[in-house]
Amino acid sequence: MSKNETYYEHQPVLLEESVEYLITDPGGIYIDATLGGGGHSLALLSQLNNDAQLIGLDQDDEALAAANSRIGNDPRFSTIKGNFGYLSRLLPPELHGRLSGVLLDLGVSTHQISEAERGFTFQKEGPLDMRMGNLRGITAYQVVNEYSYEDLRDVIYHYGEERLSREIAREIISRRPIETTIGLRDAVEAVVYGKHQIKSVARVFQGIRIEVNRELDMLREVLDQSLALLQTGGRIVAISYHSLEDRIVKKFFKSGNHEGKIEKDFYGNPLTPIEEISGGIIRPTEDEIKQNPAARSAKMRVAEKIELPEA
Ligand SMILES: C[S@@+](CC[C@H](N)C(=O)[O-])C[C@H]1O[C@@H](n2cnc3c(N)ncnc32)[C@H](O)[C@@H]1O
Q1: Are 202 and 208 in contact (CB under 8 A)?
Q2: 39 in contact with ligand 1, CB cutoff 6 A
Q3: Which atom of ligand 1 is found nearest the CA of 132?
Q4: How far is the CA of 107 from the centre of ligand 1 (A)?
Q5: 130 CA to middle of ligand 1, Å?
Q6: Which of 48, 125, 189, 297 has an alpha carbon 20 to 30 Å from 92's alpha carbon atom?
Q7: Is 59 a pocket residue for ligand 1 (Cβ < 6 Å)?
């Protein structure tokens, strides 16, 4: 199987629901900010008309190559390589304020996880890398082998949401240098016992991956910038896979900022430039989870940009 084909193994999550919520104008301009293997983009294109424009963005060269070869030559579709945290700078200025929708299907793709040499998986031996793109950024090796005890503990506690962060950080430090994913897994398994062992390993890997890719900072950035780039009535569809991401999305959709503070005018009317229209979280059906277990933790929220009354 070619590299591109392994990308197509990624089954798009909440596909019908996300496409239905995202498209408000079949001739509009849309951004798939997490293109991956192009599963969502392909479905979007099938619902858009000839006037539409869809830009797929990913920071991973392999994802871009796979999506381009899967979607082929479609005049409505183009791609940009980059981190969605810099979305406004990556998009041509003439599109600013004209977008009908931005799709965020966060996290890593099945393909990225299945490639041992990318270092995302604890199931196979690989180098401690975990970078999704930006090959100049820090790697998991640096977090594991060079962070101070306090910083490592905090990454594991805050981003991994792992209670035994102190014990695990101490164990990792006592085993330095740790060279591979299996070495990191062994360190976690030396301090966590019983049936929760594998969950703790997954949480430590998640925490380090979030740190390496600055995932939460980038999510806050892309939410801010998407809101600014949308036209009134345009939508953001965000699919997240862990509670830290969902908390950020929820707060932003409620208030339009990251403090969750609802600004009010002189008369006390809320001045919120965004409204959550999904009525909270939308989850995959039991059937979808049965067919695609990777969908089980997915949470989708949808918000619309609203026009504020004239001052
Ligand atoms: C879950 S996959 C998307 C799968 C895609 N929706 C599909 O159906 O094939 C997430 C993708 O987003 C990309 N990604 C994650 N964070 C990113 C960021 N900050 N900037 C750009 N791309 C990012 C990853 O490289 C990965 O390819």
Answers
A1: no
A2: yes
A3: 25
A4: 6
A5: 13
A6: 48
A7: yes
Pure H helices in the chain: 3-8, 15-22, 39-47, 61-71, 87-90, 110-114, 140-146, 149-154, 165-174, 181-191, 197-213, 215-229, 243-255, 286-291
Give Dmax over CA atoms of the chain in angstroms.
63
Phi, psi of 110 (to 5 degrees): -55, -40
Are residues 215 and 146 in contact, defined by beta-carbon separation less than 8 angstroms?
no
Tokens 């929708």, residue located? 101
Does residue 56's CB lie within 6 angstroms of at least one atom of ligand 1?
Answer: no
Q: How far is ligand 1, taken at its centre, from the CA of residue 257, in Å?
A: 23
Helices 39-47, 15-22: crossing angle, 10 deg rounding: 50
- Domains of the chain, with CATH numbers? 3-111+215-305 (3.40.50.150), 115-213 (1.10.150.170)
- Measured CA to CA, the distance from residue 142 to residue 197 in angstroms comes to 24
Q: How far apart are the first and last CA of the chain?
A: 59
